[in-house]
Amino acid sequence: xxxxxxxxxxxxxxxxxxxxxxxxxxxxxxxxxxxxxxxxxxxxxxxxxxxxxxxxxxxxxxxxxxxxxxxxxxxxxxxxxxxxxxxxxxxxxxxxxxxxxxxxxxxxxxxxxxxxxxxxxxxxxxxxxxxxxxxxxxxxxxxxxxxxxxxxxxxxxxxxxxxxxxxxxxxxxxxxxxxxxxxxxxxxxxxxxxxxxxxxxxxxxxxxxxxxxxxxxxxxxxxxxxxxxxxxxxxxxxxxxxxxxxxxxxxxxxxxxxxxxxxxxxxxxxxxxxxxxxxxxxxxxxxxxxxxxxxxxxxxxxxxxxxxxxxxxxxxxxxxxxxxxxxxxxxxxxxxxxxxxxxxxxxxxxxxxxxxxxxxxxxxxxxxxxxxxxxxxxxxxxxxxxxx
Length: 388
What we know:
Blueprint lengths: L6 H20 L1 E3 L1 H13 L7 H5 L8 H10 L1 E2 L1 H9 L12 E10 L10 E4 L10 E13 L7 E8 L6 H18 L10 E5 L5 H7 L5 E7 L4 E3 L19 E3 L11 E7 L3 E13 L19 E8 L11 E5 L9 H12 L23 H8 L6
Parallel strand pairs: 3-7, 7-8
Antiparallel strand pairs: 1-2, 3-5, 4-5, 5-6, 8-14, 9-10, 9-12, 11-12, 12-13, 13-14
């Protein structure tokens, strides 16, 4: 099929790749030649890279393994310039021009490196006995631009390493702010464009993220637990006695259908993998916050953080397994302002069928946003930002 493509399109594509490779080379400030060939060797590897000496045997790596170790020990990458180069690439967009970016944590396992600093227990089946669900390693939070359709390709834009003392929610908010600022400097987003959509899996405190990013031109879409309780907007105070007006309205229990009011939007259709699909959404809902956890140190009165709830019910899963409820939170509280069908299709497309087989209690308990076919690409992007 490549031979049937338009020649001008192929030339422009290769020219864009060449420009990025030149910019990538300029980001390597020490041991540039050796590091550049090492990255080519990683990208050209036929399978997972299990040892460094194997990379030095690749045809694109023209130096000995000694130069490779020297590049890893003494080389340096200008990560800020590389991030700007990635933000300046042509990004996939939806039909309405909106940019969609996925955020998820990919673990770099380091079970045998006992002296490696700042290791954490990452959510991943351990290779030791096949029972434990964590493994010592370095967690990296990767941001990647999402394209349309059923494609396994993503465009890595950023990677941040999470440390033992970091607050994951604060780190995520800072990463989103910095990424949006780079997209604006690169001309990818301008005032008047649709807000950038960030898609998150379970494990993120999406309500607090909504509050921390309330001034940013972003929208958040993420999965929440199926046992949470939301509240409707407060109505007028009942009775004639004076007093403080209520802050919270009627309860909306996700696990109790009798508490559901009439949905603002409802969409039904047929999906080739899930059969009959019913999507419903309710706007202007908020959780009743408590002064604990991430809100323990909040100054002043706890805020009312409103959003839109999306409930997705499917007929079956591949293999005739019973699906579990899937609830999504969208940071835009106006449920009539967005297409509920587009929201759930975008989320399911990037997360796979296993989104319906887990309750989403902890990050990493279900399938990653970067599915198995995408994980090597995500991990390779990590190695562009870190040394060793």
